[in-house]
Amino acid sequence: MWILDTSSPLLLLSILLLGYSCRAADIPEDTTSEFSVRLYHRLQATGGQDNIVFSPLSVALALGMVELGARGASLEEIRLALGFDNLLPEFSLLQNLTTALSEDDTQYTVRLANSLFLQEGIAFNPEFLHLMQKFFRAHLYTVDFGQSAAVAEQINSWVENQTESKIRNLLSAEDFSSVTRLTMVNGIYFRGSWKNQFRPENTRTFSFSRDDGSEVQTLMMYQQGDFYYGEFSDGSQEAGGVYQVLEMLYEGDDMSMMIVLPRQEVPLSSLEPIIKAPLLEEWANNVKRQKVEVYLPRFKVEQKMDLKETLQELGIKSIFSKDADLSAMTVVSGGKELYIGRAVQKAYLEVTEEGAEGAVGSGMIAQTRTLVLYPQVMADHPFFFIIRNRRTGSILFMGRVLTPEVIEPNDHDFDSM
């Protein structure tokens, strides 16, 4: 979410959840992979030992909405960071991606929702508002930011409705002031079921080794099935040599989750530096369908972050300062008094046996095997993941799991195992 004020800030807000969709005749290729990876590395550098989840696509759409009203250096910084060369083609790209990802599909759901909350009494540029609706299907609402509590409640209600109540209380009255002029909200909701679902009766408690040497108990899912799999090497010992890449499809085959797993004794922090945009493409192009044994922990990752500092480090600076030129948003020169105060994103991702919510039953799986007939992906230690559209290359989610869903000895789920 992005909030805009006069001589004060604009706030842009992105919201994310898990799901699935897509179908379009001429589907464009998303060109923002480099931006996605650079953003991940900035979050990783400040993330400590925390899990990470964010939506590169959501951030790109939010920046695209700001870009429509930006001029001069403010515009060029956004275009450079996102890797766009020409103004109109990039908006057509974002528009076509939005259309492709949002089309109805009976097998999965991807919901992209954008809205603008405008300060009543301010003369916004009709052309800017028209283009927001054309390219981003944005819904427009007029509010009085002076009534900050009521506005926060209205926006939070909108967010809840767009994310199936997974994201609540995103904003508070303190996020607005009498100088707030515009709040942009972008939400992505994704829900999908695995093409090959895990059987709940095969889920059991398992030890998960964290990179700091500690262990936690988690619920480990198991199945043997046909997946896209490959083993890769960075050509040196920087990433610990050989690492595994597993791609698991959601129903419909358009969406997938890719798991990148270093060797057991190699911390994820050794693998993360080699992650680059060309490598994402290399993984996607070189994994092969084969029989694989998969051990994957159930996990739930939720994160709220203010992206302002991170985006500034990526070169998008002027829109957050008094030097911002967002003059295309209004019909008078007052647009040059607008700047972005906050850029907030909240993401929620849950992975279970079904892909959505799944029950846990009793059962056992072998912890050790004397003979492995197929490649074995044992995600009992930290891993990197992306959820992407396989046709467009759009990355809906990217992140890492350093600590999965922890099961305490007195938990009901622990006892049932």
TrEMBL record:
Q: Which UniProt keywords apply?
A: Glycoprotein, Protease inhibitor, Secreted, Serine protease inhibitor, Signal
Q: Where in the cell is it found?
A: Secreted
Indicate whether Transmembrane helix appears among the record's keywords: no
Could you name the domain of life of the organism this protein comes from? Eukaryota
Q: Name one Pfam family in it.
A: Serpin
Gene Ontology biological process? regulation of neuron projection development; thigmotaxis
Q: Which residues form the Serpin domain?
A: 37-404
Q: Which GO terms describe its cellular component?
A: extracellular space
Annotated GO MF terms: serine-type endopeptidase inhibitor activity
Statement: the UniProt record of this protein carries the keyword Secreted: yes
- Spell out the InterPro entries in the cross-references: Serpin_CS, Serpin_dom, Serpin_fam, Serpin_sf, Serpin_sf_1, Serpin_sf_2
Q: Give the residue range of the signal peptide.
A: 1-24
Family from the record: Belongs to the serpin family.
Q: What is this protein called?
A: Serpin peptidase inhibitor, clade I (neuroserpin), member 1
Provide the organism lineage as a comma list.
Answer: Eukaryota, Metazoa, Chordata, Craniata, Vertebrata
